[in-house]
Amino acid sequence: MNMALSEQIVIPQGNAELRLARTWAQPRGFWGWFMNVHHTAIGVRFMVTSFIFFLLGGVLAAMMRLQLSRPENGVLGPDLYNQVFTVHGSTMIFLFAVPMMFQGFGVYLVPLICGTRNIAFPRLNAFSYYLYVVGGLLLWVGLLLKTGADAGWFSYVPLSGPEFTPGKRSDFWAQMITFTEVSALGVAICIATTILRQRAPGMTLNRMPIILWEKLVISMAVIFAMPAVMVVSSMLLMDRTINTQFFNPSVGGDVLLYQHLFWFFGHPEVYIIFLPGTAIVSTLVPVFTRRHIFGYIPIVTSVVATAFLGFGVWVHHMFATGLPQMSESFFTAASLMIVVPTAVQFYCWLATIWHGRLQLKLPMLWVFGFFFVFLIGGLSGVMLASVPVDWQVHDTFFVVAHFHYVLIGGALFPMFGGLYFWIPKITGRMMNDFLGKLHFWLFFIGFNVTFFTMHFLGLRGMPRRVYTYTPEMHWGGLNMLASGGALIMVAGVIVFLVNFFQSRATGRLAGPNPWAAGSLEWAVPSPPPHYNFLELPTVNGREAVWDALPNQPIVTGVRDDIPEVLVTNSLDSEPQHKDELPGPSIWPFLTSIAVSIAFIWSIFSSWGIAYGAIPVVITLIGWLWPRGHSPAPRLETRMEGTWTR
Amino acid sequence: MNPIPPISGLGSAVALFLAQFTGEHNSLHPAGPQASDIEWLYWVIFWIIFVAFILMITGFARAAARNRTQAAEMLPIMSDPEGDRRATWAVSSAVAITVLTLFAVLFMSVITGKKVEGRTSTNPITIQITGHQWWWEVQYPSPQADQTITTANEIHIPVGRPVVILTSSADVIHSFWAPSVNGKRDLLPGYSSAFWIQIDKPGTYPGRCAEFCGLQHAHMGFSIIAEDDNTFKQWEQQQLKPAADPADPEAAHGKQVFATHACIMCHTIRGTDAGSRMGPDLTHLGSRQMIAAETLPNTRGALAGWIIDPQRIKPGNHMAPNLLEPDDLQALITYLQTLQ
User: Fold this and answer.
1) SS3 B169
2) Are residues A382 and B48, on separate chains, in Cβ contact within 8 Å?
3) Residue-level pLDDT at B12
4) What is the fold of B125-240?
5) Considering the entire predicted model, what is its pTM?
6) Which of A219, A432, A561, B288 is 20 to 30 Å from A450 at the Cα level?
7) Which regions of chain A are under pLDDT 50?
């Protein structure tokens, strides 16, 4: 019964299958790579690219740990060290965490879990990927040319302003922000539209898998949060290039304005990184406890509440600026309040495991790692929410420890769990279990040795972002311990890479549903064909595969000779009409190049945006030029086929 | 200060662990009422979250051990309405307890915040701290200009008296933090703010800049020296005096060197022609224990190294190298050391 749907779908259908394969085929070859607009390809690219940035950011982290392992070490000078920690932080947040957790997993999984054949606005989606790559390259080429950003990942003014950071360093940083945030915004629009309009019939809001709820909520958070940081990075860029004075206190500019705008984005950003982690946990826990999740509605409410409250806590990054006590107390209250929805999620996961039959497979091991690590980070967050305690530990290694527990615990542990869970879907082959467990234990132990130690360093007064310290401070022993732990973590990541390449070549074939999981991506072959679903499914419960009826109907009447998808309404996912999605095109790539030229040009000349707009307009005309083929299904606004419901 | 234990075996791990409960640069080793208030709150929250952590981890461990199966194949899906009903009660109660605990934390946090900020006085010592890249300008303002003390990086206060610190910054954002005295406070350009400290035990309490401020953020220390009332008065009287004219010829030559080389471009020595406010006031340099914002001890050798090549010691700082003849350098150092 569980497998009813997937069995039904893998039955070869002869001509229909061939026609679909031809209709949804993506071009091959060198130029074909740049024309591909299918969400599985773009999603994998987001994952691979952001993982490469993760490795690069990790190299920088290792360099910092090497420098700090001994007092008055001379491996990195202050200039290089400042670039290294700035690029490390910016890479991990903007080029790894969000592109991996939101864009990577989201773009790959959302259309599959929705039961549709491609993401909405596939060309915008591809465009967003290229823009993200250029933004990442900009930051890293800057570092390699010794013009790496060096004012910290939040680049506070006036330090990052024209007076104290002359040259192009902070401009590279500010434009990298613009690139990555335009990319995130584009993907947010694609994902939100896909979830709201392309869900399989029967997948009402009340039956939407939690991971879709989370992707929808995060898309909204991205749409509201990213403009703030794009505004602030553009204001910084204007201060630096065309002599505006937004942040120059000597002529009435305001340095706190920058902090407010940055953290109005910066704190929701934490949840944009963390909520995808909880969504992976909420997806994995029922699969490996062999039951539906306990507390679907409380968990969904918690996800929505977390994203909402996340916009009301930004000032807790600014408690040391000397704001009035009343407003600080308000933000303490809000910061403590946001503990509640996360606690609700934890209790629901605990209840699910308690009343389920736990099968502690590799992905689930990482979920338990998440429980342990994130719990410590979340609880030390209670300390940071308290204004007086924050006055002591703010901007010290205690905070460094806290946010690595929260972000590595909240994103990286679920990410590895998710990768071990979904890589069989993506590559079609299982990962090696032994190497996976070795990876887990190395990473888990190394992580805790490195970062738990940092709590003590912070309490003993070690500020963050110092490139060295004197032996008289007695921070040497703990720092050496932390650096040793970092080595163990590095070993763990190397084991993962070995495992990935080995299993991709020789791993056991996974089959469509190796974990006997419940959501729709497991109802298609691994790896999925470009048309995703041979037969478009309908859904009978929150876990589409588990809850499928023996005679679960399929959707008919969607054309297979053009790339057509079924459009359903937002609330009840009732079929409304059909739409033809755009196919492969080189224009998104060309447009992204044109936009990149304008953005990068604007660093060097205030006329860059003006002249750079010309190629952007030309490429946009090319992109939007009406193709004029197959008009008939576009006009069709009602179901033409029959529901065999 | 405790010595650094060698890394070997469990014993030193324990020693390392204990080491952080000692030392003067330590949030958990308070020397005054503000830091004590915060330390109290820290430990209250610590024990609350410690208990919460133990409860949650025990819960997950028991849940994992309870129905774990070793089956290689994935098992069929089960439903358990009775379990769900009981879980509803358990989860609801846990949420209620969480909310109540958080209210308690909020209450204690607000009360402690009020207490820390409320330890004021109508007759305080007032100190104006101005952050510079990468040193601290310290002023004891007075309505009479000649009664204003200006020094750098070394703050003297009397024991047991409330002190109000007024903050400002000359360039970028810095943050004033002496962990055993009080929490930190940002020094923002364009803003000024005030906060209170008090130290009850005589001693030297180190502090550092806590907000990243550029190349030498790591070497931007200060120290607060708490002393009894008489010693403080004496220090105050001494600081108010202009620099004495050097008696011996070598020091007199040193004064000449100071006035004819780059030194005079940036530094003040009251009682001489040197009056620039770019760098630290050196009128009583000889009385300070450290130089270069707590980077080096105030010794002849360190002074010589600092004057000749400050860029080696604090790369990127705003003091240029000075290529002095050996005789001139010796004389200059002798002169600087007479500035008591």
Assistant:
1) strand
2) yes
3) 57
4) Immunoglobulin-like (2.60.40)
5) 0.93
6) A432
7) 1-12, 631-645
